[in-house]
């Protein structure tokens, strides 16, 4: 126990010091100058304060009032020492924050007992403060643990969705990071950026309700299959909606609206412009960009600069122009996030600082050879394990049913980038076939994406008849 004694009378200080130090474990610091005492009180945490009423410079009432403004002394017992026992002085001291009074004229047992009671009160206040601090720490640790578990569950669930969608799961981490970077570029608050980073991986959770025959179909989808694919935002809303967790509610919002388009041509609600939640507008840019720059068994990856041109070209149509502007402004960070290898993105050792650090990398199992649809057998199992290729690398070769190798032969729109495909081009109302108006510009290999509307494989955002 530490006591602070402030009195301009050396005799009174000596008398009170002797009484206080007679108590076990009691250390006393005394000052005749109230200004010096105030300075030391701000640097040290005393358990009890005794202050004279009448002192030069600062009187006892002003001293107590200042002490109560210091957070530590909000509950610490402060005792007024005075020979003036008038009601006016007592009332003023109580209003300033005095706990009790000691009359200088007190002698013997009474003074000793009153000091003892004040010391007991100070000990009780100190114990309560220590218990409160311990409880605050325990609650903070429990909340942190709960948030970490919530985050880990989200990333594991997202990984399961990606794993079912014939991916190794790195799409999840990249979209989360890209979304966070765009949110930062928009100047959103750090906690909002962090929540978006954690919620974005569940944008396609509704795909767990899509049959494998449609979700994993290597060729183009017919109209009925594409209509089935377009139900996955509603499925995601049903899976995540109504949660008490703010993070899960944000994930539900993203899952439901991330296929809406700025010009109103998206689904499921056909929302226009700012009616689309900002979180979904951000994730839409991140999702499409990652799909464009990711190699799939049925398409090659687009170089980052060419994919950026695609995003710019669809600003104001597919994407919120403000999100595109933020994406372009932070493109060096986007490039770094997209260029990290799996070990760099998701370390398996060292301190755990991110939720994905606790989630293992899932590799696709390589099953025994089995008959594959003509033209769609992957030349090597490693092609399934490679989330992306370096810019400028050649398109992966595909072996047809006779064993000959050709480059991928898909022509899809930029809107195909989120993971599903429109129907065959030779059906009425479909896009132009290669070699006609809209064919790929020179210098872009067949099987890669067209500018400004580049194919990216599976198209959640496309309709079967999109040009």
Written overview of the protein:
The chain has 467 residues and is α/β, with parallel strands linked by helices. The chain has two domains: 135 residues, 3-Layer(aba) Sandwich (Rossmann fold), CATH 3.40.50.2300; 198 residues, Hypothetical protein af1432 (Orthogonal Bundle). It is elongated, with a radius of gyration of 35 Å. The C terminus is likely disordered. It holds the Pfam family Response_reg. One of its GO terms (molecular function) is adenylate cyclase activity. InterPro entries: CheY-like_superfamily, Cyclic_di-GMP/3'3'-cGAMP_PDE, HD/PDEase_dom, HD_domain, HD_GYP_dom, Sig_transdc_resp-reg_receiver.
Structural class: alpha/beta
Major sheet details: 5 strands, parallel
Any guess at the CATH architecture of the largest domain? Answer: Orthogonal Bundle
End-to-end distance? 81 Å
Please give the order of strands in the largest beta sheet. 2-1-3-4-5
In percent terms, what proportion of residues is strand?
5-15%
Write the element-wise H/E pattern from the N-terminal end onward: EHEHEHEHEHHHHHHHHHHHHEHEE
CATH topology of the largest domain: Hypothetical protein af1432
Please estimate the helix content: 40-55%
Number of strands: 8
Radius of gyration: 35 Å
- What characteristic shape results from the CA principal axes? elongated
Quick take:
With 467 residues, the chain is an alpha/beta fold. The chain is 44% helix and 6% strand.
Provide the descriptors you would attach to this structure in a database record.
467 residues, alpha/beta, Rossmann fold, Hypothetical protein af1432, five-stranded parallel β-sheet, lyase, adenylate cyclase activity, Cyclic di-GMP phosphodiesterase response regulator RpfG
